[in-house]
C-alpha cells in the first residue's frame, strides 16, 4: 500500500462511515481504518437506538453500524480493520503508519476517531477493571445476574446503562454527584420509574473496595461530607467521554480538553488537507445523527479541497 491515496479516513462509527459513503460516491476511493478493537465505534456497545431518523421502530446500534459499513463498501470504500498508530499530517503529502507496519501516503485525511469512556480516576477502579468494574453494560451486564450493582453518572449514558442492567441485576443504585440529572427528560423518567433502580444523590465514589473483585464502594456525601462504605458486586462507570486525540497532540490544534479545533462551521483543521468530524470535535451534541452529519461535511470539505488541487 505504498501508492498515493486521495483520502484516508481514520476511525469508523457514524462519522467515519458516513464520510466513507460520501467520499466513495465522489470516486475518491477512500481507505478507511476502522480500528482493530473498536471497529464501528461506540454504537457497537449500545442496545437500541430510538432516535436515529428513519427508524421509527428503533434499530440496534451494531445493526446500524453494519448497514453504514455495507453502504460504504458498496460504493467502493476500502475498509481495513486495523489502527493507525502514527501520523505525520504536516506538508502536502500526509504519511500514516498502521498497526501491521504498512506506511500509507495520502493527499487528504479525515479524522473520525471518536471518544473513549471517561474514568473516575481511582487507582482501584483501574486495578479491578474487568473484575467488577466496567464501562459497558451491554458488554458485561450478563455476568451480573441477581447481583447488586452501582452505576455512576447523571447523563443519558448512566440512565441507559442502569435501565439495561435491571434485566440482570437484582438492584441497581444510580450514584450521582449532584441532586439533579443531566440526562434528557425521557431517559431520566424511564430510570426513575424503574422499581429496581434507586438513586443515591450528591455522592461521589472515592474508592473501589475488594481484593480480587469488586466487593463494595467507599462513598462521600458531598453535602454532609460523610464517608460511608456500601456493598456492591459491580461498578459501571458512565460519566461521559474524552476525545481520542492522543495521536494528534503536537500535530494539529486541540482545545484545552483535547478536542480537535475546526474552523467555524467547516471540518477544516489548522493543517491543510486534514479534516475532523464526529465526537472528536464535538463537545456539545455527540449524537449518532450529528456525528453522521459532520462525517458528511468532512467528505464534502475533502472533496472540495482535492478538486482545488
Ligand atoms: P454527559 O451527558 O456528559 O454526562 C456525564 C455525567 O457524568 C454527568 O451527569 C456528570 O455530572 C457526570 N460526571 C462527569 N464526570 C464525573 C466524575 N469525575 N465523577 C462523577 N460523575 C461525573 O455524558 P453521557 O451521559 O455519556 O452522554 C453523552 C452524550 O451522548 C449526550 O449528548 C447524551 O445525550 C448522548 N447519549 C444519548 C443517548 C440516547 O439518547 N439514547 C444515550 C447515551 C448518550 P454533572 O451532571 O454533575 O456534570
Commentary on this structure:
The protein has 309 residues and is an alpha/beta fold. Helices cover 24% and strands 27% of the residues. It has helices spanning 13-25, 61-74, 123-127, 137-140, 156-165, 185-192, 288-307; strands at residues 4-10, 31-33, 48-49, 59-60, 78-80, 84-88, 94-98, 103-111, 115-117, 133-134, 148-152, 171-175, 197-200, 203-209, 216-221, 227-231, 234-237, 241-243, 274-276. Helix 1 (13-25) runs parallel beside helix 7. It is elongated and about 65 Å long. The two termini are 22 Å apart. The site of NADP nicotinamide-adenine-dinucleotide phosphate (NAP) has 19 residues, from helix 5.
Write the layout of secondary structure elements.
Layout: E1 4-10, H1 13-25, E2 31-33, E3 48-49, E4 59-60, H2 61-74, E5 78-80, E6 84-88, E7 94-98, E8 103-111, E9 115-117, H3 123-127, E10 133-134, H4 137-140, E11 148-152, H5 156-165, E12 171-175, H6 185-192, E13 197-200, E14 203-209, E15 216-221, E16 227-231, E17 234-237, E18 241-243, E19 274-276, H7 288-307
This protein binds NADP nicotinamide-adenine-dinucleotide phosphate.
The site of NADP nicotinamide-adenine-dinucleotide phosphate has 19 residues, from helix 5.
Amino acid at each position: 500500500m505504498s501508492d498515493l491515496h486521495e483520502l484516508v479516513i481514520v476511525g469508523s462509527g457514524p462519522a467515519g462511515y458516513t464520510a466513507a459513503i460520501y467520499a466513495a460516491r465522489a470516486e475518491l476511493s477512500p481507505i478507511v481504518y476502522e480500528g482493530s478493537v473498536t471497529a464501528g465505534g461506540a454504537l457497537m456497545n449500545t442496545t437500541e437506538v430510538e432516535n436515529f431518523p428513519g427508524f421509527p421502530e428503533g434499530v440496534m446500534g451494531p445493526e446500524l453500524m453494519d448497514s453504514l459499513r455495507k453502504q460504504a463498501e458498496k460504493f467502493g470504500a476500502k475498509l481495513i480493520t486495523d489502527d493507525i498508530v502514527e501520523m505525520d499530517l504536516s506538508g502536502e503529502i500526509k504519511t500514516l503508519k498502521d498497526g501491521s507496519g504498512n506506511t500509507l501516503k495520502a493527499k487528504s485525511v479525515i479524522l473520525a476517531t471518536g471518544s473513549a469512556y471517561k474514568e473516575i480516576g481511582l487507582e482501584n477502579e483501574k486495578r479491578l477493571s474487568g473484575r467488577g468494574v466496567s464501562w459497558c453494560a451491554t458488554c458485561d451486564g450478563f455476568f451480573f445476574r441477581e447481583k447488586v450493582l452501582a452505576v455512576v453518572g447523571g447523563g443519558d449514558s448512566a440512565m441507559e446503562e442502569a435501565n439495561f442492567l435491571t434485566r440482570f441485576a437484582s438492584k441497581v443504585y444510580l450514584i450521582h454527584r449532584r441532586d439533579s440529572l443531566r440526562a434528557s427528560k425521557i431517559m431520566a423518567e424511564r430510570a426513575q420509574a424503574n422499581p429496581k433502580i434507586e438513586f443515591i444523590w450528591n455522592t461521589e465514589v472515592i474508592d473501589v473496595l475488594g481484593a480480587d473483585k469488586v466487593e463494595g464502594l467507599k462513598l462521600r456525601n458531598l453535602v454532609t461530607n460523610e464517608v460511608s462504605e456500601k456493598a456492591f458486586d459491580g461498578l459501571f462507570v458512565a460519566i461521559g467521554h474524552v476525545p481520542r486525540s492522543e495521536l494528534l497532540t503536537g500535530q494539529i490544534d486541540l482545545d484545552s480538553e483535547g478536542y480537535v479545533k475546526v474552523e467555524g462551521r467547516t471540518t477544516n483543521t489548522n493543517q491543510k488537507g486534514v479534516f475532523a468530524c464526529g465526537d472528536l470535535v464535538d463537545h456539545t451534541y455527540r449524537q449518532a445523527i450529528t456525528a453522521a452529519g459532520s462525517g458528511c461535511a468532512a467528505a464534502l470539505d475533502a472533496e472540495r479541497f482535492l478538486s482545488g488541487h
